[in-house]
């Protein structure tokens, strides 16, 4: 059995951090005899520069065939003035949608070793462990019609469509209920059902699903309140499920509660458990090429990949244990640096994880 | 010259907190000889129970004629299962839209006396003073078409439309640039221009306006990043301008950074500076009728009303000074209570402000 991993470094710090994660995957492949083979491809700005499109056909074909994808990050100021269809982000969105990676899992975990990095008071965030389940291939990101039109008055109007079908809601709901079953058995569905019809349907379907998961306690919260509650008392949450746009906002807010977004991985899965794995942070063009980016979120994304797409729980745990060990050793990249710790480069951090494996 | 204020207590704690603000307004009216006269009306759940509609014609007529409106809050669980068009929220949304109250100003200020109430570290929030300018009569809240339709497949799809015209963007942009001119001269426009066409137009118009306000420094931020930056380093912001939905989320998040949402007022203005003023918090049905709600956000909303709609800056400052004085005296309602302070009821807090005037 050979399984293929597609590496998509992308832009900015992407190549640097993916390089470290790739070394870790090679070593774990040998240690655990996983039979993984590796390919690589272009996406985002890197693909625009090389092939004049953010998602070349070749990349899409490789992605479709791969068992899992490890992505760095896409985007940067040099491509910001391109028309929407040609921007780096379209590479990412195109992969999500072509592979139907509808289930985006974003853990927000506070590493005890990094507790002081949070801008919140220790008692508010210590032990924080939330899982955000974000719908990733529907909602306003992909809704039609969309664009800019000229009205009869002669002025322009920009418009987008926020839409969900019952089955789209049901399949992400199931993923979230199942995640809650594996964890603290509490699921909070976030919507704006007091204003938006599309989220009235969302709430109805979530309530329907409740019968299939009687061991999970379901609650509902309006998105404005959720944004507040994450700041006030984030530990009240176990699993949160929400649509694409609200999930984009709330998962970044939740990630930042930890103060160390350079540590947080994510998974985007389809119904065959094929998945794309990427750090929660972006391409950080301001520090690209300096060798100072934190590779741990990408390395932890590789661990998630082993767990969710390759069914190699032990190998995943080995990586996670190695990351925990280097944190215990006091090694820190600049983004998570604190007094008394030892500042290391991207590469030194990667090497330390390899050594700890 | 007689000017009319319409009091709309609404639901939950609304009547209790509006009663205290009304006493304050009566006293300030006498002290400063403002020539205000007062009316009252039904809105939200209270109007549904009495008149079977969340916004009776009589209320709308009074509102249209009033110089300013002071609203408590709307909504509660007993009306949550009503169809969308009959819900308390429609009373609020109907007032906003009929009166064209497109400019929602939401300050997020940390009162030094209440610094410890924040869930953020003191150094992150001390001195916090942000103004969020939210577009209030357009965007996805009011976009057409909307609803739930049956697809050919037989399944249902919920949908809403997120739309803005150039002129809608321009008029809220002007309000925000002007607010920035009065303050720290920094304006951050929040959008999702890497994904949503409607916000590409938003960004273009904001950039256009820059020429009219050369003294204001304009920046742009994606909404997911803004949700993060508010947690990480909120003091980087001066004025934030954004659309209706993003503004709903970010203004609540920003309010909660202070830890004392019971202190925060808001103003919703039209182009004639007619305005509706209300606390940022909701109707809090869980504590309604107990006499323990914090009336200060409503009292401070009355101060905003004097400033923005009635052009009575001195009277506004007098109220704000009185509020500051009662805080200095150590008086606290339950929501902002801390060790060593004196816990007071809604009414006692109102009386203390009166005494301090
Ligand atoms: C880059 C952008 C299109 C993307 C999104 O909005 O989904 C990013 O913010 C994310 O959350 O993965
Ligand atoms: C009650 C609700 C409709 C309203 C909104 O979403 O605008 C509220 O959350 C607010 O922010 O004033």
UniProtKB/TrEMBL annotation, chains A, B:
Cofactor comment: Binds 1 Mg(2+) or Mn(2+) ion per subunit.
Pathway(s) where this gene product acts: Amino-acid biosynthesis; L-leucine biosynthesis; L-leucine from 3-methyl-2-oxobutanoate: step 3/4
Annotated NAD(+) binding sites: 76-89, 282-294
Residues annotated for substrate binding in this entry: 96, 106, 134, 224
GO biological process, one term: L-leucine biosynthetic process
UniProt feature coiled coil, ranges: none
SUPFAM superfamilies: Isocitrate/Isopropylmalate dehydrogenase-like
GO MF terms, alphabetically ordered: 3-isopropylmalate dehydrogenase activity; magnesium ion binding; NAD binding
Residues in Isopropylmalate dehydrogenase-like domain copies: 4-353
Record localization: Cytoplasm
Enzyme Commission number: 1.1.1.85
Cofactor(s) required for function per UniProt: Mn(2+); Mg(2+)
Protein family (similarity comment): Belongs to the isocitrate and isopropylmalate dehydrogenases family. LeuB type 1 subfamily.
Subunit (UniProt): Homodimer.
Full protein name: 3-isopropylmalate dehydrogenase
Species for this entry: Marinobacter maroccanus
Gene name per UniProt: leuB
């Amino acid at each position: 059995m050979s399984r293929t991993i597609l590496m998509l470094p992308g832009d900015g710090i992407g190549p640097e951090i993916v390089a470290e994660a790739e070394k870790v995957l090679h070593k774990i492949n040998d240690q655990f005899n996983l039979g993984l083979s590796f390919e690589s491809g272009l996406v985002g700005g890197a693909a625009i520069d090389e092939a004049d499109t953010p998602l070349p056909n070749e990349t899409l074909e490789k992605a479709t065939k791969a068992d899992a994808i490890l992505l760095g990050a896409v985007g940067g100021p040099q491509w910001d003035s391109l028309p929407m269809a040609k921007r780096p982000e379209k590479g990412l969105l195109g992969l999500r949608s072509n592979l139907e990676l509808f289930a985006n899992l974003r853990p927000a975990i506070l590493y005890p070793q990094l507790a002081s990095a949070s801008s919140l008071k220790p008692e508010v965030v210590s032990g924080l462990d939330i899982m955000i389940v974000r719908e990733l291939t529907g909602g306003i990101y992909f809704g039609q019609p969309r664009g800019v039109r000229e009205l009869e008055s002669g002025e322009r109007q920009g418009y987008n469509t926020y839409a969900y079908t019952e089955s789209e809601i049901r399949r992400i709901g199931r993923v979230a209920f199942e995640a809650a079953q594996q964890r603290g058995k509490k699921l909070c569905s976030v919507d704006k059902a007091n204003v938006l019809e599309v989220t009235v349907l969302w709430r109805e379907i979530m309530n329907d699903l409740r019968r299939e998961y009687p061991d999970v306690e379901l609650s509902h919260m309006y998105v404005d309140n959720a944004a507040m509650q994450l700041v006030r008392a984030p530990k009240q949450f176990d699993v949160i499920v929400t649509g694409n746009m609200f999930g984009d906002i709330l998962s970044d807010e939740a990630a930042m509660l930890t103060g160390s977004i350079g540590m947080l991985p994510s998974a985007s899965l389809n119904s065959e458990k094929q998945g794309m794995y990427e750090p929660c942070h972006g391409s950080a063009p301001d520090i690209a090429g300096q060798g100072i980016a934190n590779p741990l979120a990408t390395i932890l994304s590789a661990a998630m990949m082993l767990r969710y797409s390759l069914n190699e729980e032990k190998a995943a745990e080995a990586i996670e244990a190695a990351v925990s060990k280097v944190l215990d050793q006091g090694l820190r990249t600049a983004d998570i640096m604190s007094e008394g710790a030892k500042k290391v480069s991207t590469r030194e951090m990667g090497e330390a994880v390899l050594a700890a494996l």
